[in-house]
Fold each of these.
Amino acid sequence: MELSLLLEYGWVLIILILLEGLLSADNALVLAIMAKHLPEEQQKKAINIGLLLAFIFRIGAIFIISYLFHVWQVQAIGAAYLIFIALKHILKRNHGEKEKKGKSYRMTVAQIALADIAFAVDSILAAVALVIALPDTPIGEIGGMDGAKFIVIIIGAIAGLIVIRFAAGFFVKLLTKRPSLETAAMLLVGWVGVKLLMHTLAHPAVHIISHDFVEGPIWNTIFWSVMLLIALGGWFLSKEKTKESQVE
């Protein structure tokens, strides 16, 4: 492979790893919210299973990417689900209802799996959109695409999973230390659902919103600005759990 081609692929790989890191932060937050109510030993197990599922879904998505371009319903279901759980949590808090702690471990894993499918589709579609313009190489085809492009996407996906692993554990600890931060976290989950909804509406089969707008700087600036405002507002308005409440 020529040096210029290696440099071009290397630059795109760096961008993809950063992109996957940002996208995986969403995934990690949702995973942490879903696993938080479980006992500590089950939290780690659920997160690890979530990582395994995320990896399987991402690899599978790469192999059937040409089919996924036509299946906008997966992202639509994921968007609806994330918005639903966010609204459900916020409405319960507003009505003074306590969160149920009896949700089963299997149900939690099933919810994580559903969210992971939606995030896998979103992540891989973004990755393919980034590498598709790269020139082909003599490596040959893997999974219906140029082998080098396939390898770049795989490396990006693995980088994203590493981010999820560390970020999810951090979010669980943070939410345990500051329970009142959970409302802000659920607002973030709902906002991530809005992002998936925007991608669904921009899908070629739906085409209610321009794809260029959803992938462009204006929407991305709006999305990350709102994410930052919610995170900062939640942090400054939340209270750290006291030792007395921990004992109780």
Amino acid sequence: MAAKTRSDQRRAEIVRAALEVIAERGYRGASLAAVAERVGLTQQGLLHHFPTKEALLVAVLEERDQWDATPRAREWRLDLLASLVEYNAMRPAIVQTFSALLGESVTEDHPARGYFTRRYASVREDMTRLLHAEYGERLPSGLTPEQAAPLLVAVLDGLQYQWLLDPENVDMPGAFRNFLVLLGETAA
């Protein structure tokens, strides 16, 4: 049991180190050797825990999803989305890693492409349900929730990219609250 605990702790250290290396260099620029060095292992030692770079990437994405455990779609509200944006503004390394992987995943052969494709389909469905719950069949603009959901997701991710590039001049939570005003919500 103690050995399993040590192994689990070591795997968690490796995943955190991989997250840092990917945030700094992107997935393609990250090497197993760099991750191993960061946690004081040889590359062979790291391969004992994660047999491939792709396996490590999957572990990083799964860990990120655990950190971002969010309410199911039926529990989402626009004010909770605003809170999520504020929360993300306190975690630049996590946002940077996610954004770097997302950007790289648009290529056909990227190992995270399937993950992000499935994730975005699910997020768009969640946002469609949220918008239906908030506005019914039409938003104040006249758009349907189905039309507005991809736009909402684009604003969330687009603000993250702008904030990562220029955090001094992009107030991500404030800009998202301004977007909610465009949707017809009362200004905070």
Amino acid sequence: MKNHGWSWLLGLGGLFLLLGLWWLGVALFGSGSGLAALFSPQATFVSLIELLGRGELYEHIRVSLQRILVGLSLALLVGVPLGLLIGASRQLEWATTPAFQFLRMISPLSWMPVVVMLMGVGDRPIYFLLAFAAVWPILLNTAAGVKSLDQRWLQLTRSLSATRWETLSRVILPGVLGHVLTGVRLAIGILWIVLVPCEMLGVSAGLGYYILDTRDRLAYSELMAMVLLIGVLGFCLDAAARALYRRWSHAPG
């Protein structure tokens, strides 16, 4: 309990240090500029409070979270089955690893012009780009989980004449769930980074769209408030993913 309290204090200290560096940066590099005052912590927090009182902000948050959920769900639907197959077959791993590593190293944002030309503007290209970005950590972690399974459990299922479905549902899936959750946490971090530029693809709602709107209106303190809010929401999503992993890892077997 004592160590837990210290970790909270140190974490708060790091946040206050970050706030101080923000204030110092604006003071040093924006000295003599009236525009720089709009990017200061004081102006940002005032605008953030004003934004939190507007109903439209919550609609933008809802739309963005919905896109994250759809992109993550698509990545799970593709990544988990592929990861199970690749982890179970050395030949399939050899056949797919070069292609997957090649695709994984291509930035999802580089596909933006292509998917817009093929799918048009709207939610569909955003869902594709988010799923493309999130599928790799889920796939690779699932495959790693299959390869790390205790072979004695698999031998036991064969000796008991378990069906493939029983082996999958009672041994393999519970055994790789921790790895899948690790992949989900990594995927959420990637999704949150990719989401904002994706929402600049001609849509009319979402946090990325709202940032463009504040820029066009020259509302720079609101822009900084949105940047701060995106950081807070991303932090909360990551904390939720970590809590889910801890709950699973401490659950009775």
